[in-house]
Structures are given as structure tokens and as C-alpha cells.
Amino acid sequence: MNLYHLRYFSVLAETENYTKAAKLLSITQPSLSNAIHSLEQEIKVKLFAKKGRNIYLTKSGKLFVTEVNKALTTLDQGISEVQKSNQHDTLIRIATLRTLSTQWLPNTVHDFLATNQKTQIHFEFSTDTGLSPDIIHGLRTEKYDICFCSKVDDQEDIDYFPIAEQELVVITPNNHPLAAKKEINLAETLPYKQITFSPRSGLYSIMRQLFAECGGHPTSVYSIEEDQAVAGLVANNFGIAVVPNMTILKSMPIKIIPLTFPKWKRVFYMATLKQHYKTPAVKHFVDFIKEQN
């Protein structure tokens, strides 16, 4: 059964006038007449009857137009859903740590789009709570397609691919006694009050291990989850801190001191679900990042 014929029939049933219907459909009146005639022959039912120069729906025609309109509505809804799905296939949902959202990620996305100008790909960005465990939870619940964060666990459902790293530094207020140092051993920070990472932070266990290597643990005046928030407290003279060497530190009123011992680097990863369908757009972006790194 010809779909166009059904649409023509629906319009003609509404107008009950060949001239008006043909004009609405942007076709000739003979073409419309032929289509309706073919439809009536196919279903072996008379759909319209003539009354002078006018036409009207037969009893069978009224029954048929009701079902045809239902079918066309369902079909149009299906087409709309498929089109939305197709648009979704060009969307890449990303969650990232805030420290990667200021420079690394924007630069990477810019380079990707510059090399794929003919491809209609759209990005949706989120920092979630700013914490790696929550970002990974969003990945596992399929809220995100790709995540850029720290490695949370060793479960086999997630593929972690290293994309960047940061060395640890000591940061102090500009007027702090340690601010004059050009480099520093972690043990030298122990006498001073510090802003430390809370247990929810991915750096919490790492910092405890590093301080243990130095023979002690700092006096913590505040315990914070996010590294940027830690830096903010240091900039306002609440204490000193040991943090990854983030780009944002250079714009803050603090002193950044390289750490000589113990040496440790914070590694950032691209996280994706292993046993999960990736749209062509997502797969293309994942491959691009792996090639760049």
C-alpha cells in the first residue's frame, strides 16, 4: 500500500474537495484523483461518493479515515523518535574533573572539531560533583559516555586510558615562612598547619601514604574534597597544602614550590564502559584521544 496515497486520502477526507486537497498537497488534481482511485481499487472499497460537484465520505470511508489517521499519527511519532535517536547518536556526553575542564579538555575538543569539520558532533559537558567516584558512578549508570577523572577502582567493567598527569607541589600564602623556598621536602611542611584532602577525595589515601614515608602526618585545620577548593583556602591564608600542580594555581596569590621528596604524579584517565555500545561519534572521539596520547 502506497504511503503517499494514504496521506492524500487523509487530506481529501478532511477537505472533501479535490481542488483544495490538491493545493494543500502541492500536486495536480489528476494525480490526486488517480491516487484515490488506485487506493479504492487496492482495498476494494468505495471511499468517496459524489453529490453534484462535491464529494463526501462513504460510511466505509469514514471508518477507514479514522484508522488511517491513527496509523499516520503512529508512523509520524515513530519517525520523530528515530530522528531524535539519530541526533542523539551525534551527541557525546562528557563528565570531567574541574581541573581538566579549564584547559586540557577544551583544547582537546577544539582540536577534535577542527579535524572533523564536516561531521555534525555535539558535546554535553558536566563536572558532576567534581569528584571522581561520583563521575564514575554516572558513567556506570550511563549518564555519561566518556569521563575524565582519576582511577577509582580496578573493576573490570571500565576501561581506564591515561591522558594526562600532574606532579605534586606545595602551595603557601605569599607571606608564609616557606614561601622563600625554591624547592621543598614534604617533611619540611609538617610543622605547619595544612589544608588536607577529605576521605571522599581520590587524593586522601595517596597523601596519607606519602606523609607516612616522611615519618609523620600534618596538622589539618580544614579537610576538603576538591583540590581547587584547597588552593582557595591557601590563597586566603588558612594554611599551606600539598596539591597537584594545576593550571589554575598560576592565577592565584600563592607561592608554588616544587616537591623534591617523595616524588609522585597524579594520573588522569579517560574512562569508558567496556561492554557497552558506543555511538560512532563517541567511538571516533575515543579513538582521537588515544591517538593524541
TrEMBL record:
Q: Recorded GO terms, molecular function? A: DNA-binding transcription factor activity; transcription cis-regulatory region binding
For this protein, the record's InterPro entries field holds: LysR_HTH_N, LysR_subst-bd, WH-like_DNA-bd_sf, WH_DNA-bd_sf
Please give one Pfam family short name: HTH_1
Q: Which Gene3D superfamilies match?
A: 3.40.190.290, Winged helix-like DNA-binding domain superfamily/Winged helix DNA-binding domain
Query: What UniProt keywords are attached to this protein's entry?
Result: DNA-binding, Transcription, Transcription regulation
Q: Which PANTHER family match?
A: HTH-TYPE TRANSCRIPTIONAL REGULATOR, HTH-TYPE TRANSCRIPTIONAL REGULATOR CYSL
Say which family it is in: Belongs to the LysR transcriptional regulatory family.
Full protein name: LysR family transcriptional regulator
Species this chain originates from: Loigolactobacillus backii
